């Protein structure tokens, strides 16, 4: 399995040099207006928020500006330290980042009002995909929300991947993940059904981006515990 580390933060094959330092636009909309999701009007002003895969802190800065108490997780100690370094560069020193993976986040039960997972779920394949969703629910308070973005069947990385079984696809898009097994979803309905096993209310949203060489597309679950 390819390992996230400092040397492969970005895909240099396409000229990238640094990770993005701007927040996820769709996340900004979801947390800014009830026109996009009912979650907006139900989240407390001082919410405790966990971002799974906090990475370079690009979303943390926006979350802090909203007055939320922000926590993060990363997959190994190198990534934790790197996240803290990026956060410090953004002038943020009061975000706790713990080492943890999708199915073992290392935080207490019912601790958060919001959990955010932007493109981390598909790194859990097969049964670990279900365990990840179960863990996302475990750390949320009753009534809390999970916002989970994952590549849809229209995204170039999932379209080109080789399906092995449910939530088990072999990555064929090159880079350090080449040959790895990823947990892509077969359909929007499947994603919703899986979320409904662990959450009482699930809404699935979609977004797409078309470029000259790439088609990017995601499903976003807004799931209330």
Task: For the largest sheet, list the strands in their spatial order.
Answer: 3-2-1-4-5-10-9
DSSP strand (E) fraction? Answer: 25-35%
Care to count the β-strands?
10
Number of domains: 1
Helical stretch count?
Answer: 7
SSE succession: HHEHEHEEHEHEEEHEE
Oligomeric state as shown? single chain
So, CATH architecture?
Answer: 3-Layer(aba) Sandwich
The level-1 CATH class: Alpha Beta
Output the CATH homologous superfamily. Answer: Vaccinia Virus protein VP39
Reported for the largest beta sheet, the result is: 7 strands, mixed
Percent in helix: 25-40%
The structure class reads alpha/beta
N- to C-terminal separation?
Answer: 31 Å
How many whole angstroms does the radius of gyration measure? 17 Å
Low-confidence stretches: none
- The pLDDT mean sits at 93
Descriptive report:
By secondary structure, the chain is of the alpha/beta class. The protein has one domain: Rossmann fold. Helix content is 25%, strand content 28%. It has helices at 25-30, 39-42, 58-65, 77-89, 127-138, 156-160, 188-196, and strands at 48-52, 69-74, 96-99, 112-118, 140-151, 162-165, 168-170, 181-182, 201-210, 215-224. The strands form two sheets. Strands 3-2-1-4-5-10-9 form a seven-stranded mixed beta sheet, with helices on both faces. It has a three-stranded antiparallel beta sheet with strand order 6-7-8. It starts with 24 loop residues before the first helix and ends with a strand.
What would a concise description of this structure say?
This protein has helices at residues 25-30, 39-42, 58-65, 77-89, 127-138, 156-160, 188-196; strands at 48-52, 69-74, 96-99, 112-118, 140-151, 162-165, 168-170, 181-182, 201-210, 215-224.
């Amino acid at each position: 399995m390819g390992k996230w580390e400092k040397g492969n933060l970005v895909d240099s094959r396409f000229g990238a040099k640094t990770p993005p330092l701007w927040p996820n636009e769709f996340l900004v909309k979801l947390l800014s207006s009830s026109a996009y999701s009912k979650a907006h009007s139900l989240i407390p002003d001082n919410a405790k928020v966990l971002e799974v895969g906090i990475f370079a802190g690009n979303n943390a800065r926006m979350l802090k500006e909203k007055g939320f108490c922000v926590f993060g997780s990363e997959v190994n100690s190198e990534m934790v330290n790197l996240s803290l370094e990026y956060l410090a560069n953004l002038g943020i020193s009061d975000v706790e980042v713990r080492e943890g993976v999708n199915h073992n986040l290392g935080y207490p039960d019912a601790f958060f009002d919001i959990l955010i997972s932007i493109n981390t779920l598909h790194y859990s394949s097969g049964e670990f995909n279900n365990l990840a969703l179960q863990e996302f629910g475990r750390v949320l308070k009753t009534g809390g929300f999970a916002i989970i973005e994952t590549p849809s069947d229209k995204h170039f990385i999932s379209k080109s991947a080789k399906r092995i079984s449910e939530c088990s696809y072999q990555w064929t898009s090159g880079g350090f993940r080449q040959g790895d097994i990823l947990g892509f979803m077969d359909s929007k309905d499947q994603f919703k059904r899986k979320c409904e096993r662990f959450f009482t209310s699930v809404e699935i949203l979609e977004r797409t981006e078309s470029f000259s060489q790439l088609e990017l597309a995601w499903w976003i679950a807004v799931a209330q515990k």
